[in-house]
Amino acid sequence: MKVKDGKAHRYAKLLVYGCQMNVSDAERMEGQLETIGYEPTEEMTEADLILINTCCVRESAEDRVYGKIGEIKHLKEKNPALIFGITGCMAQKEGEALIRRAPHIDFVLGTNKVHELTRVVQEIAAERGHVVDVQPGETELPEGGPVARQNKFSVWVPIMYGCNNFCTYCIVPYVRGRERSRRPEDVVAEVREAVRQGAKEVTLLGQNVNSYGKDHKLADFADLLKMVDAVPGIERVRFMTSHPKDLSDKLIETIRTGRHICEHIHLPVQYGSDRILRAMHRIYTVADYRALVGRIRAALPEVSLTTDLIVGFPGETEEDFAQMLAFLEEIRYDSAYTFLYSKRSGTPAAEMADQVPEALKHERLERLMTVQDAISREKNEALKGRTLEVLVEGPSKHDAAVWSGRTRTNKLVLFPHGAEQPGDLVEVNITHPQTWVLKGETVASR
Fold this sequence. Notes:
By secondary structure, this protein is of the alpha/beta class. The chain is about 35% helix and about 25% strand. The longest helix has 24 residues, at about 360-380. The chain is globular, with a radius of gyration of 23 Å.
């Protein structure tokens, strides 16, 4: 606890690793901490409480967390009253093993225990013991809790938790549990409240949003999207992530006829050969995926398609990889998130034979990125001279005189700052398209 201006203050520092769902969970945790008197800080040395919300999808994410845990040990030695906790997917996976490895950790909370944070922090503050809670949570997480939004104009809203797909490379179903959908009225109520507080854009989150509602059968994802699109004051509606096996023609039509639903679909294919897709347990073929993309582009000619790709999955041959490159040339994504396959203990792929050597993984990744970067550049070059609607985010990372924002198709745009403010919708004429960004000049705003 620090004294400033004659008043006592308690500060909390949250470190977040991993996906958008982890960011959303952290906003809910920070909201809870504010209800018991903690203020956010950017300085770990100032913090009375440090919380790491973790990811374990890739080994590199775990390595970064362990490095940070070691760093915080020194802070704890200087300030024994500091409360230090681990939450998220790595907490769920490792449980008590984290405290055995690093006894300076005070508590470990699993992925279904976000709503227990304030209780646990108060218990630690009073008794200074260890708490580990990674048991499966309730079927439905409590609604209506506080949320400390990091961005008031563009917000994350989870619509479901967990995953039922059990792809052979993925740890998510084991650490986040089976799919549980929020009730549609609860999702819409959260969106309404976010808009009341100034939100212009909402992104609906789930490991596989297309299977929303299969458990409670109150509404499917297309129904929910239509409800959110109708919220007064909303300007843009986004969603992620989509599993190709569940993206319906009804959903495509809902996007086509929606007023505020953005023309961007993140559609992870993961690989471009049927043999590897079967080994990954992806439940679709290259032909299935190709046909789906055809239906999407027929209905949404301006759509931006992005994807995830994994290089070096066990058993990957040069022939498989050649099929992957040919598939990229055929589908022509606007951009792709590319990953080296990373072993995750507890997943079937970790035990598969024919693990690909690391050097070969890196060499293939470079080849893949060269192909995709060229396609991304060509896609962006086609936008030169176009005037696009951009939602202003704020100053760019490298130059305060240059501001950034995103198009409806989720393209990052840089432009000279004038009178625009975060949250404004402006029209930008694209003058200098590049591989990863578009640069332009504002022509109007509203």
